[in-house]
Amino acid sequence: MEKDDWQKTVDFLQQAFNNNYQYDVLKLLLTPDERNALITRVKIIYALLDGSINQRQLKDQLGIGIATVTRGSNSLKEVSPNFRAWIEKNLLEQR
């Protein structure tokens, strides 16, 4: 993947969101299965940050493989402290 292509894609998405087309652009670009996978990933991050259930319980609750939960956990470990604080503020306080 070219970095320039990724940046152009991110810029396109940002413009769509800025113009209040977030729902439309995501529906255009993602299949129903991909949208469901994205929803599941957000649920994984939420549950990991919330800490109210362990990873095995989360796997069972969402009906996914433990590897999917582990990937979410590993990805969360790689984010910067500032971004993690932003995620916590915007995800945990949102619900």
TrEMBL record:
Membrane-spanning segments: none
Residues annotated as signal peptide: none
Pfam assignment, any one: Trp_repressor
Cross-referenced SUPFAM superfamilies: TrpR-like
Domain of life the protein comes from: Bacteria
Residue ranges of DNA binding: 55-78
InterPro entries, per database record: Trp_repress, Trp_repress_bac, Trp_repressor/repl_initiator, TrpR-like_sf
Record keywords, A-Z: Cytoplasm, DNA-binding, Repressor, Transcription, Transcription regulation
Compartments it resides in: Cytoplasm
Complex and partners: Homodimer.
Function per UniProt: This protein is an aporepressor. When complexed with L-tryptophan it binds the operator region of the trp operon and prevents the initiation of transcription.
NCBIfam families attached to this UniProt entry: TrpR (TIGR01321)
Protein's recorded name: Trp operon repressor homolog
Species per Swiss-Prot/TrEMBL record: Frischella japonica
